[in-house]
From TrEMBL:
<dbReference type="GO" id="GO:0005847">
    <property type="term" value="C:mRNA cleavage and polyadenylation specificity factor complex"/>
</dbReference>
<dbReference type="InterPro" id="IPR036322">
    <property type="entry name" value="WD40_repeat_dom_sf"/>
</dbReference>
<dbReference type="GO" id="GO:0031124">
    <property type="term" value="P:mRNA 3'-end processing"/>
</dbReference>
<feature type="repeat" description="WD">
    <location>
        <begin position="11"/>
        <end position="42"/>
    </location>
</feature>
<dbReference type="InterPro" id="IPR001680">
    <property type="entry name" value="WD40_rpt"/>
</dbReference>
<protein>
    <submittedName>
        <fullName>Uncharacterized protein</fullName>
    </submittedName>
</protein>
<keyword id="KW-0853">WD repeat</keyword>
<dbReference type="InterPro" id="IPR045245">
    <property type="entry name" value="Pfs2-like"/>
</dbReference>
<dbReference type="InterPro" id="IPR015943">
    <property type="entry name" value="WD40/YVTN_repeat-like_dom_sf"/>
</dbReference>
<feature type="region of interest" description="Disordered">
    <location>
        <begin position="75"/>
        <end position="129"/>
    </location>
</feature>
<dbReference type="Pfam" id="PF00400">
    <property type="entry name" value="WD40"/>
</dbReference>
Amino acid sequence: MGADKEVGSIDQAHDSIVWTLAWHPLGHILCSGSNDHTSKFWTRNRPGDLMRDKYNLNMLPAGIPGVDDLDLDEPAMIPGMGPEDKVDNSNSTPEEAAIPGLDFSDLPDDKQKTAQKKVPYSKPIPRNFQAHWNETSRCNVEEGIAEQEF
């Protein structure tokens, strides 16, 4: 961008044409979007840092010391995540292995589930309709009694 000839490249970075490049506002990360439907994030080496990137593909020019010449420090360990922190789980029971807060002991058995019958929600009958219904049913009952007497 803004140069007539290639300033730099990384082989096998994208499988297709790069459509867009965008810098983070602080300028420490570059994001590239490509026609192969991938977005990749790139960082710059700090001044004095050697190229230890696994994607560097060991293409250093001749005369520049490589990574193989240096002794790498041991990888950083997260406290509590090492092999010495492993606990023997051979004596654990299924109750101990349960997720806290999920108590399945109160759930009914399958037999009880089938015995329960679900009743769908029914909307309550309006009072004026119910009062009118009760009046008409009394009138019909009284008329039926009067007809039987004749």
